[in-house]
């Protein structure tokens, strides 16, 4: 079990402060999970219900005419078109929860000291990239709703 006690920004990184719990609900250890702010700029291409990639005008991107049965069709863009991109970051709730679950499972197997608390170290300002600065608020806004939620696994 674990509980996300806080979601915040520190040095242009998204931080999820998580309390890991024993099966009886008692405190086991605390951990800070980090994602770079630039994750807020990464987007996925839009596809239709059948999985075809879409162009910026909402139409399916064309496929090459000369395909053999072994070819995997790869859409292309005609001149003057761009891909349609999703509005939300590629990073999603599963990106966060799967990371936390994975660490929890690893530590169940290997053991982890009771009460061990991870310290959230600072990043020097000159080491923060412009893409992290520009996009960190995007991922905070996308995941702040996780604050205060608990999960069985």
Termini Cα gap: 5 Å
Low-confidence stretches: none
Assign the structural class, choosing from mainly alpha, mainly beta, alpha/beta, alpha+beta, or little secondary structure.
alpha+beta
Q: Kindly report the spatial arrangement of strands forming the biggest sheet.
A: 3-2-1-4
Number of domains: 2
User: Could you estimate the helical fraction of the residues in percent?
Assistant: 10-25%
Global mean pLDDT:
89
Q: Beta-strand level of the residues, as a percent range?
A: 15-25%
Number of helices: 2
DSSP strand count: 4
- Global outline: elongated
- Quaternary structure: single chain
Taken in chain order, the helices and strands follow as EEEHHE
The value of Rg in angstroms is 21 Å
Largest sheet: 4 strands, antiparallel
Short description:
With 153 residues, the protein is an alpha+beta fold. It has helices spanning 93-110, 130-143; strands spanning 2-10, 13-21, 27-36, 150-151.
Description of the molecule:
- This protein is an alpha+beta fold and 153 residues long.
- The protein folds into 2 domains: 2-42 and 92-151, no CATH class; 45-85, no CATH class.
- The chain is 21% helix and 20% strand.
- It has 2 helices and 4 strands.
- The chain has helices spanning 93-110, 130-143, and strands at residues 2-10, 13-21, 27-36, 150-151.
- Strands 3-2-1-4 form a 4-stranded antiparallel β-sheet.
- The protein starts with a strand and ends with a strand.
- The model has no long low-confidence stretch (mean pLDDT 89).
Structural topology:
Blueprint: E1 2-10, E2 13-21, E3 27-36, H1 93-110, H2 130-143, E4 150-151
């Amino acid at each position: 079990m674990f509980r996300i006690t806080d979601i915040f920004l520190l040095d242009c990184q998204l931080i999820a402060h998580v309390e890991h719990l024993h099966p009886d609900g008692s405190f086991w250890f605390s951990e800070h999970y980090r994602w770079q702010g630039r994750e807020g700029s990464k987007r996925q291409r839009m596809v239709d219900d059948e999985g075809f990639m879409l162009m910026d005008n909402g139409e399916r991107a064309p496929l090459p005419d000369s395909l053999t049965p072994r070819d995997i069709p790869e859409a292309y863009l005609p001149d003057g078109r761009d891909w349609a991109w999703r509005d939300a970051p590629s990073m999603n709730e599963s990106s966060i929860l799967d990371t936390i679950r994975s660490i929890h499972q690893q530590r169940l197997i290997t053991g982890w000291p009771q009460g061990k608390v991870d310290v959230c170290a600072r990043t020097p300002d000159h080491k923060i990239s412009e893409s992290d600065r520009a996009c960190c608020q995007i991922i905070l806004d996308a995941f702040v709703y996780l604050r205060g939620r608990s999960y069985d696994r």
